[in-house]
Amino acid sequence: VLASPDAPLSVTVPVRGPVTLRHLLTLTAGFGIDFGDTPYSRATRELLWGPNPPDMDPDTYLARLAELPLAAQPGQRWMYHSGADLLSVLLAKIAGKPLSQLLAERITGPFGLDGTGFPTGEENFPAVYQEEDGALVEAGAYRDAFSAPPQFESLGGGMVSTVPDYVAFLSALTDDVLLPAGTAASMAADHLTGSQRAGLTEMAGPGQGWGYMTAVQTEPGAAWSEPGMWGWAGGSGTSAAVYPNGDIGVVFTQRLMSGPQDSFDWFWEPLGRVRGALRSSG
Question: Is the pTM of the predicted complex or chain greater than 0.85?
Fold first, then answer.
C-alpha cells in the first residue's frame, strides 16, 4: 500500500488485511480513480479510469492491477469506479461462465430487458460527444469501444441499455422482486464510516453516502433531493435516482461528463418541481 497518497509507487507499507467482496461493492477496496496529479493517478489513468471499459482482456487487467500498490488500505477510503471492474471479473470466475450469460440468466432474461446487455457490434447507437476546448466533438474512442463485442465485460461502464429498460430494472429493485427485501434495503443504505467518506465527499460533495454500487442521500441537499434517495450520475452522461416513495427519474444524454464538477441539475430541478406539484394536488 502506498505510504501516502502522493508517494512514488515504490514507497509502500504492508497491507493490513485482504480485499473483500464488501470492499468492492462499497468501492473501499483501496484502489480506484485518483483525480489528483500523483504518481498513482498517472500510472493508473489507462487502467482504472472510465467511462470506457478496460481495453484488454480480464486476465491482462488482473495482471496489471496486481503489479500496482494499493492507493489506500482496504476499507480505509472510498475511491470511484474500479471496484466494479474487479467485481466483473470475480463474478464470471465464481459463476464459471461469461458475465453476459450470467446477467441474461439472472436479470435481463427473466425481466424482459431486451435492450440491455453488452454490445454485440450490431447496434445503431447515437453519436456521443465530449467537450474539448469549449466545443463539443464526437467521442471517437468511446464510439469505438462499443462498436464490437468487448474483450472485457465490465459492470463499471461496459453495458448498454434504454431508458425504459433501466426504469424497469430500478422498479424491480424497489418492488423487492429482483432482490430479497433485506438485501435491497442494505444495497440502498449508507455503508461508509469515518475516513472512508472523504473520497466520496471530494467527488460528490457533502450529504452523500454509498451503499452497494450506488450513492445514497444522507442529508438534506438540493431542493429536488431527499434523504434516502439513491442512484448515481455516471461519466458516460447518464443519471438516475430512486426517491424514498418509489418515484424514479432516469436521463440518458449524448454528452460525456467532463468531470465531477458537471451536474444534472438541469434535469433534476424541473423534475423536483413536477413531483412537488403532484404531491400538492394529491
Answer: yes
